[in-house]
Every structure is written in structure tokens, then in C-alpha cells.
Design a protein that fits this description.
The complex is a heterodimer. By secondary structure, chain A is an all-alpha fold. Chain A contains 8 helices and no strands. Chain A has one domain. Chain A is globular. By secondary structure, chain B is an all-alpha fold. Chain B has a domain of 108 residues. In chain B, helix 4 packs antiparallel against helix 5, helix 5 packs antiparallel against helix 6 and helix 6 packs antiparallel against helix 8. The longest helix of chain B is centred in the first third of the chain and has 35 residues. Chain B starts with a helix and ends with a helix. Classes of the chains: A mainly alpha, B mainly alpha.
């Protein structure tokens, strides 16, 4: 992507811009991670309490059978189960910033089960697929910007969004299942 | 009615969680403060560990966008879009959606202001924004935090989701609002 971009800029004579936007991109990245630090600390702190208090174990026991269908390789009552359930529910509620730390927590739990620390396991890929599909019940941010743009009915998109994200989630899960079978056979 | 309920749910979810979890921990006899700090410390190191990966990704995306390479791809796909009856005004947004969250939010705001939030383009753009998440950001952050360098097939699966989301948004919105 970087090489392609610079190549095109060279042809169109925008080379000067490249230096500028490369640097501003790097700065943005640091800003994003600094913003993340605060939320990460908050949520991982809260999650630690939930873990020690046994809340996560309770959740994974209740939701276990359902989640196990999508994540067959996670052992029963492993903390990863609970973390995955919490990530998915936060995603559904549209909690935005809170989702990332929770998802990372789930990934860390999954990493403990990973025999090859460099390479993603099928379970990680499934979780990622679910998160990138981003199934959300109420897209609060979008309703807010629609309201700001003077929409008469800012919430009118909830219906189509629900249908679309269901379709997306289902197709992503199917693709994930297909890829998993193909890649494990090799 | 449903929308309002859902919105209230989103608004209340975080405060309720922030209140209930420590309270439950306290009842269970856990030293809530110490445990919180221990967890928060982990959060700090994780966020720092992600930074180099984010720098690499955001520089690449920024260069890609400013250099006009994005526009080039838009121009290339445009004829195919027209054959499939997909509005080409929305193509840059569809591509940006998988690359950058703030970028696509900005683009949607632009579309809303330019075409009107209740126009079919405005509604479709909002649906595109709402129905998928920023694939590359999620991928980078989640995998970088645990040091995974080989994401295997998950990039393709994520991108497939974005494409399906885009096409589906266009057709569903046409069905609902035209």
C-alpha cells in the first residue's frame, strides 16, 4: 500500500505531500494509542475485578453452549469463553471505545491456547471476523451525526442497518467456516 | 419505540456496568482498588505495544489516500459499479470504511451535508457506516496486542464482510426508501 501510494504520487507529481502525510499519519497513530491507553486501563481494570469476582466464569458457563458452536476448539469453562461473550455483547450494544480493550482481552486469553504464538488460531480468526463485521443493535454515533446534519428522522437507518449487519455477519461466519476447513486441511 | 429503547440501552450500559462490577467484587470480598490497578497496568502496556503497528498501518493508509492511489482504484472500479447499479458517489466511502474509522466518519458527514441526510445516498451512506467495522484497524490492534504476525485468512474474511455490507446496504436501502 505504501509503495503503491508513493509510486502514484511520483507519477502525479504529489511527492511533496507524501512526506507531510506520512509524518501526520505517524502522529495520528500515536494519538490513537494514547487515547486507547485511558480506555484500556479503565476496562481492563474493571475486567480484572469481574474476573476475580467470578463474574466472567458465570457468564461463560451460561453462554458456553452457544459460543462453543462457533469456537469449537476452546475448552469448557476457559476464561476465553467469557471474554469472547463480553466482547460480542459490547459490540452489539455499540459501546465503541469499550469494545477494543475487551476484544484485546479475549485475544490474550486465546493466545494462551495458541501453540504457535506467531500465527493466528482459527478461534482468533472467527472472533476477528465477528468484530470486523461489527454487529450493532443501535449505531449511536451515526444517529448523532445524522441528527447534526439536520435529518428529520435520524433513527430511520436502524432497520436497514440491522438487516445489513445481520447479512454481513452471517456471510462472514460462513466465509470463516469455509476458510477454516480449507486451511486446516492443508 | 424500538429505536428509543435501544438508544437508552446504549446510554445506560456503561454506567450500569461501571457500578455493578466493582460492587459485586466488593461484596465478594475482593480488594477492588488493588485489583483494578493491576488490570489497568496491563492495559497500559498493551496500548503501548500496539503503537508501532498502528504507526505502520496509519502511515501506509495516509500515503495511500493522499497520493491519489485511492482515487485511481475508485476510477478503476467505477465502470463495474455502474453495471451493478451501485452508486459511484459512495465508492470512496466503501473503500475508506475498511481502512479508517475517522476517515469514513468524515466522509459520511460530507455526504450527509452535501446530499442531505434523508436522501437515498445519505441513508445508504449511514447504513454502510453502521453495518461494518473498520477491518484494518480492528485487525491491527487485536493481533498486534498479542504479537501475531501471520493473520492467515482473516484479512480476506474481513474484507469480504465489507464488500457484502456495502452491496447489501445499497440494495436494502433502495428496497426500503425508494
Amino acid at each position: 500500500m505504501l509503495v503503491g501510494g508513493i509510486f502514484v504520487a511520483g507519477i502525479t507529481g504529489k511527492t511533496q505531500l507524501i512526506t507531510q502525510c506520512a509524518i501526520s499519519g505517524a502522529q495520528q497513530a500515536v494519538e490513537v494509542s494514547f487515547k486507547l491507553i485511558g480506555v484500556m486501563c479503565l476496562w481492563l481494570g474493571i475486567m480484572k475485578i469481574a474476573e476475580e469476582a467470578g463474574i466472567i466464569r458465570i457468564i461463560s458457563r451460561i453462554m458456553g453452549p452457544f459460543v462453543r458452536f462457533f469456537f469449537p476448539d476452546i475448552p469448557r469453562s476457559h476464561p476465553a469463553m467469557g471474554a469472547i461473550v463480553i466482547t460480542i455483547s459490547a459490540n452489539m450494544l455499540g459501546l465503541g471505545n469499550a469494545v477494543t480493550p475487551l476484544g484485546i482481552k479475549a485475544m490474550q486469553e486465546l493466545q494462551e491456547l495458541n501453540p504457535n504464538k506467531d500465527t493466528a488460531t482459527p478461534a482468533m480468526c472467527t472472533l476477528l471476523a465477528l468484530c470486523t463485521a461489527g454487529f450493532t443493535l443501535v449505531p449511536a454515533t451515526i444517529i448523532a451525526i445524522r441528527y447534526a446534519a439536520g435529518s428529520l428522522n435520524p433513527a430511520s437507518i436502524i432497520g436497514p442497518t440491522l438487516i445489513t449487519s445481520s447479512v454481513t455477519t452471517i456471510s462472514v461466519l460462513c466465509a470463516d467456516f469455509l476458510c477454516r476447513t480449507i486451511f486446516t486441511r492443508r | 419505540m424500538f429505536a428509543e429503547l435501544g438508544e437508552q440501552l446504549s446510554v445506560w450500559a456503561i454506567p450500569v456496568l461501571l457500578c455493578l462490577i466493582p460492587l459485586y467484587g466488593f461484596i465478594k470480598g475482593i480488594s477492588v482498588y488493588e485489583v483494578f490497578v493491576k488490570g489497568a497496568e496491563e492495559g497500559f502496556y498493551t496500548a503501548i505495544r500496539i503503537m508501532p503497528f498502528l504507526v505502520a498501518m496509519m502511515v501506509a493508509i495516509n500515503v495511500f489516500r493522499t497520493s491519489g492511489a485511492l482515487q485511481l482504484i475508485v476510477n478503476l472500479i467505477d465502470p463495474i459499479m455502474n453495471k451493478l447499479f451501485l452508486p459511484s458517489e459512495l465508492l470512496p466511502l466503501a473503500i475508506m470504511r475498511s481502512l479508517s474509522g475517522s476517515g469514513s466518519l468524515g466522509m459520511t458527514t460530507e455526504i450527509l451535508n452535501h446530499y442531505g441526510p434523508d436522501s437515498i445516498l445519505g441513508i445508504t451512506a449511514s447504513t454502510i457506516l453502521g453495518s461494518t467495522d473498520t477491518t484494518f484497524y480492528v485487525l491491527t490492534v487485536y493481533f498486534a496486542s498479542i504479537g501475531i504476525r501471520n493473520p492467515r485468512y482473516s484479512v480476506y474474511v474481513g474484507l469480504l464482510g465489507d464488500i457484502v455490507g456495502f452491496i447489501c446496504s445499497v440494495y436494502i436501502c433502495n428496497l426500503f426508501f425508494v
